[in-house]
Design brief:
This protein has 108 residues and is mainly beta. The protein has no helices and nine strands. It has a five-stranded antiparallel beta sheet, with no helix packed on it. Strand 6 and strand 7 form a beta hairpin. The relative contact order is 0.18.
């Protein structure tokens, strides 16, 4: 799972796109200015699974929506595992635990 942080600023004069009128294609040019994001992997790797663990030992299967509580815990909807996972900061590590559902069992 990757979490993005940073600031994005878009300045749209005329965004570059192609305007189609009938059979005529007219290019419209513009300028987009942005600040890049920094991404950090908190838990999991680029492999599918449903295992709780610390940092890269955790596995997810289609992590989707996330929310953060006041204590800094991150809750993840692990869509294809049908679970809700909690990522807890412990020092410099992140510990993943399943708090709802059973991996691979719809409606558990």
């Amino acid at each position: 799972m990757k979490i993005g942080s940073g600031r994005t600023t878009l300045h749209l004069g005329l965004v570059a796109f192609t305007l189609l009128i009938g059979a005529i294609s007219l290019p419209v040019f513009g300028e987009v200015i942005y600040s890049p994001y920094t991404f950090t992997t908190l838990a999991g790797m680029a492999s599918i699974g449903g295992v709780d663990g610390t940092n890269a030992a955790a596995r997810f299967n289609n992590p989707a929506n996330t929310v953060v509580d006041n204590a800094g815990n991150i809750y993840v909807a692990d869509m294809s595992n049908h679970t809700i996972r909690k990522l807890t900061p412990v020092g410099t590590n992140w510990v993943s635990t399943t708090i709802a559902g059973l991996a691979g069992n719809i409606g558990s």
